[in-house]
Specification:
The complex is a heterotetramer, with two copies of chain A (about 400 residues) and two copies of chain B (about 150 residues). Chain A has about 400 residues and is α/β, with parallel strands linked by helices. Chain A has 13 helices and twelve strands. Chain A has a domain at about 5-115 and about 210-230: Thiolase/Chalcone synthase (Peroxisomal Thiolase, Chain A, domain 1, 3-Layer(aba) Sandwich), CATH 3.40.47.10. Chain A has a ten-stranded mixed β-sheet, sandwiched between helices. In chain A, strands 5-6 form a two-stranded antiparallel ribbon. The longest helix of chain A has 16 residues, at about 140-155. Chain B contains two helices and eight strands; from the N terminus they run H-E-E-E-E-E-E-E-H-E. Chain B starts with about 25 loop residues before the first helix and ends with a strand. Chain B folds into two domains: about 10-70, no CATH class; about 70-155, no CATH class. Classes of the chains: A alpha/beta (about 400), B mainly beta (about 150). Chains in contact: A-B, A-C, A-D, B-C, C-D. The complex binds zinc ion (ZN) (2 copies). One zinc ion binds near residues 44, 56 and 59 of chain D.
């Protein structure tokens, strides 16, 4: 079975951009292919993660980006699982290489969320909820996660300040990430003093509305050898994916079962344990997600997830030494929905190849990526990446 | 009633899945308009769920009975939506909660009370109302007559 | 390499329905699984073709349908390439079985187009065009195809009446299809007397706005053996896919190159020639598509495609004996966008297993399916199906 | 001009792809507002295309020069849109055509003439205008200032 590796990545800066989605993709592609042959010479297939047609009134993003990359006749398609779309694209790339169907595949993600303003984004994201009972009740994305936060704090005793510290940590990380939407430190008071969006969540508990695009080049190890030096590759050694009920009400509110299952599958494929993960990019669309995910993927004992905001040495027994969201996470790096899963891969690639600059995590050898769509784990995709 | 309304669990046949069947959304909302909240109950594992659907989300069985749900339930988690979508802006802030009905079925819905007036564990009771004119504007064509479920503190 | 087969199918009637998308799926699933174990016992993955979130304000259709099928934790996702979404789902199912990743996969398609009326459908479909130059010029789907029709008639000398006969033939076929949206015969005058939508195309040159859902159960031959008798299976022996420029202006207007490439790849995988195909379901979203596709996939010499409306014996030399659109095609069976590619597979499955009732094509052993998205071949997926 | 405007073909660097570069849509439309229709020309295979993009659709090369396009072209195919989307309903029926410019680049656009007044082969000339108020209503936020290309019989 061919071994899939990531051999190059590219990503636009995240934030509000004057560029359209296809232009942001051009930026990401130009970076990813700066030292590679033309895509037309090497790429066999292309997948695009994209959440909503409403932002740019554009579907067919597979064909559009294939054309823009000079891949006119290449098989290309859009995949959608709300915010997990990016990792779904990556998973296809990894599997197409594994099966031997393809030698080189582009996993792409793009979203121009700011095109419709905050109201447009609120509406577009609500389409991810069950239409019958959830959407019609007037619930929004922040309030869906607020339900999780309310229950999590109720069961674990975590406070709003505990959640605030997750945002503080991620903003601090993002100051060292030149692609991040927010490169400024904040303190817990900034979060706690910000207005409630959906109690107990406040403005600074929420990831922003963002524009961005990312490209991850996946190839068989054999094909990669002909294109880059081996230290420029990262192994995609494990993948996991799964769904959970669409409606939050019908799930465990304090244990993200979908993420647990997806991560477990990825660990098994990679032949590793959760404790061996050095760095993780998890889906912190809202602060409460990071502790929930830390528990679900096996980094933390139940109820202690908020310690993700602490330095590894300061955490309680049973916690792993993993560093979470070195990129700044969705909260501070930004969250261009369909591209987020690939920004996670970009961060892990840069960390595992020693190119993460000021935010380099020492001796990072194994990374876990957890990308979710819908509210929390309505769909989850997990990847384990390892140094070659 | 066409479709499944007698509570007897058996696999549904395609021709039974009409707009009158409570296993479809039009059928579910038609019953809700009559004041009856219908749910499914799995014959295999006993899980109850709203709305009814042809398979159990807990165990995958297709032996599903349709049963009227109790109107009484309890708040499992709640929040206050400060900034809802435009269709609901006039009613902001909204109190929204996950409710566990006494059957064990869970669903999300509005609570007709201030956020401060309720908490986890507060007992609530189901009410059903028509959409407001404003809400109808934002409804899709086929949803205009679908009523809204709203919980009131019991 | 495991051999993928289709072992069961199901589909809702096509037309304007009171049911929502998920309900239409329930109908299709109940039919497909009438004689099978619960999906939860056998299904490893699920793909959903769905064109637009705008009809029902619903994304996350992968998770939604997985839940509705009792497949709560199964990997599930939506794939989108406009009207080719259904065949993209089928292609994933076939490839997941081929690679050995899965034993049984559901390829699903769903669209509730009537939810937004004709204006809503016009707008939702226009999102498939290039936003920069095409959409902003005010072009609609019928007028895009009208450009093709105008040029095709100009180059080949085909008349509006020649195109009308395609609709007449497909309506006649649909009278024998109990799932068809239009089960009434029409004559050429009906088409010619209908009002212009985009000259030279008239109302009866256009496929209708439709609701519908379809399910195709794909499995390895080995897994299928444990579930059904072998005569109930159909081999998915060849698949092809590819893109073409998004903008019609930048393509060959009278040769559907994307379809040519996709079909050629499918033939090669199956090890057959175009002349060996007995029945074909092609993407006749507008009458002009059928002659264009007949030429592109190798049934007809260039410029003679309109003879698809004739009985095989009445066609000129070089034409194959293929029967095109025994279902009634998109024109008369109906065109619920994201499900159309799977309705094509449903028809071929029923024909190849001898279950097509009054419309049974005698001795049908090999079928070609061509499903397109965007305008014509912006994305094309072709499948070859064969009797087991 | 930032980005690529000097016509010299070389691969674009990511930092050059700003809103001022004609290889992005904002840059392309800014030039169009100034009356200049820019296209790409492939250094490998000579294909011309509008708008410019970082790779050639014909051969995949990334050696692309940006060049102003001729205003003159010919109708390759045309139609009359009887029922356009709501944004354009006031102007219905619309004449729309595929135009081949004298550079060989092809694009779709409106023709400011009745359908009966033009045919395949009719020479046309590019004009550029601002959006009407009605069109602006339907434009996305970032498109409001983007002009529209319209062809007139030459
Ligand atoms: Zn059950
Ligand atoms: Zn070229």
């Amino acid at each position: 079975m061919p071994e899939p590796v990531i051999l190059s990545v590219g990503a636009s800066p995240v934030g509000e951009s004057e560029l359209t989605g296809r232009d942001l993709f051009s930026v990401a592609l130009a970076e990813a292919f700066a030292d590679l042959p033309d895509p037309a010479e090497i790429v066999d297939a292309l997948y695009v993660g994209n959440q909503s047609e409403s932002y740019e009134h554009q579907i067919m993003y597979g064909t559009l980006l294939a054309e823009w990359a000079g891949l006119r006749h290449t098989p290309a398609e859009r995949v959608e699982g709300c915010a997990a779309a990016g990792a779904l694209a990556l998973r296809h790339a990894v599997r197409d290489v594994r099966s031997g169907e393809c030698d080189v595949v582009l996993a792409c993600g793009v979203e121009k969320m700011t095109a419709g303003g905050t109201a447009g984004a609120t509406d577009a994201l609500s389409a991810a909820f069950d239409r019958a009972l959830e959407q019609r009740s007037g619930i929004t994305a922040p309030s869906q996660y607020a339900l999780l936060a309310k229950r999590y704090c109720h069961e674990t005793g975590a406070s709003e300040e505990d959640l605030a510290r997750v945002a503080v940590k991620n903003h601090a990380n993002a100051t060292k990430n030149p692609r991040a939407q927010y490169q400024s430190e904040i303190d817990a008071e900034t979060v706690l003093d910000s207005s409630y969006v959906a109690r107990p969540l406040k403005l600074f508990d929420c990831a922003p509305v963002s524009d961005g695009a990312a490209v991850v080049v996946v190839a068989s190890a054999e094909a990669a050898e002909t294109l880059v030096d081996s230290e420029e590759t990262v192994r995609a050694s494990g993948v996991g994916a799964g769904s959970n009920n669409l409606a939050v009400a019908e799930r465990d509110l304090t244990f993200v079962e979908g993420a647990h299952r997806a991560a477990t599958q990825a660990y098994e494929e990679a032949g590793i344990e959760a404790s061996e993960i050095d760095i993780a990019e998890v889906h912190d669309a809202f602060t409460v997600c990071e502790p929930l995910l830390a528990e679900a993927v096996g980094f933390a004992p139940r109820g202690t997830g908020v310690q993700c905001a602490l330095d590894p040495g300061d955490r309680s027994d049973g916690w792993s030494d993993v560093q979470v969201s070195s990129s700044g996470g969705l909260k501070a790096r930004g969250h261009p929905i369909g591209a987020t899963g690939l920004y996670q891969a970009v961060e892990a690639y840069e960390q595992l190849t020693g190119r993460a600059g000021d935010r380099q995590v020492e001796d990072a050898e194994r990374a876990l990526l957890v990308n979710e769509g819908g509210v929390a784990d309505a769909v989850t995709v997990a990847h384990v990446l390892e140094v070659a | 009633m066409a479709g499944r309304g007698d509570g007897s669990p058996k696999r549904v046949r395609p021709e039974e899945l009409t707009a009158e069947s409570p296993l479809t959304l039009p059928g579910f909302f038609a019953a809700l308009s009559d004041g009856r909240l219908l749910g499914g109950r799995c014959d295999e594992c006993e899980q109850a769920f709203v709305p009814p659907r042809p398979a159990c989300y807990a165990c995958g069985s297709r032996e599903i009975a349709v049963e009227e749900q109790p109107r009484e339930g309890t708040i499992v988690a709640d929040t206050e939506v400060a900034r809802p979508a435009p269709a609901f802006a006039a009613d902001a802030p909204l109190t929204i909660a996950v409710i566990e009905l006494d059957s064990g079925a869970r669903l999300t819905g509005r609570v007709a009370a201030d956020y401060e007036a309720v908490e986890i564990g507060t007992p609530v009771e189901l009410t059903v109302r028509e959409l407001t004119d404003r809400e109808k504007e934002f409804a899709l064509d086929h949803e205009g007559e679908w009523p809204l479920h709203v919980f009131e503190p019991a």
